[in-house]
Amino acid sequence: LLLDTPMGLTLRDIPTWETRWTNPTSYAQVRFSPQDDALIALSGYEVLRIDPTLNTVLSTVEIPLNGGLSTLSPGGAWVAETLGGDIQIWDASSGEPVAVLEVDASSGAVMDMAFSADGSRVIAGSDNGDLQAWDLRSGKRTLFRPAAIPSQIYQCEVQGNIAGQIPGSLLVICSYPAPDYLSTYYRVGIHRAADA
What we know:
The chain is an all-beta fold. The protein has strands at 2-5, 8-12, 19-23, 29-32, 39-43, 46-51, 56-62, 69-72, 78-82, 87-91, 97-101, 110-115, 121-126, 131-135, 141-145, 155-159, 169-177, 184-192.
């Protein structure tokens, strides 16, 4: 079990709950590689590949990020970044740009984004509450849903592997502030992966 806290990373053995190691470095995001043989960590302008057994850095790749909103895909293959507009996709293993996803300009700035569980799609919530999704292979937008509650999106989470979920579907959960900003609305949608 990997615990990522402001105090750093801790790797624990699940059956015994014994701490294997603690790393005081705090990363923006950390993912296990698909083979579980490495941790992929996003830290500033670098993607680090870390040996989970020894807690040593195996490799470092610099990515020329612009200091905007960024997220690491499940498995750590891609990094998405936006300064509020179009979303740049980077290959996390080479640092090379691979795609630019065009955001609908009338939606306002992108406030949050997430990858689908399989890393093949990016879903973003915009300043006015619109929800957009893109297929990474084609770069085409596959979903544009205007906001039901016009308001700034605080959080957008995408899940594709929850127990009991319809195969081939994505669960999208977005939270919006209430008009009085004292409470939060949540909007949950289930979309076929081909449409989202």
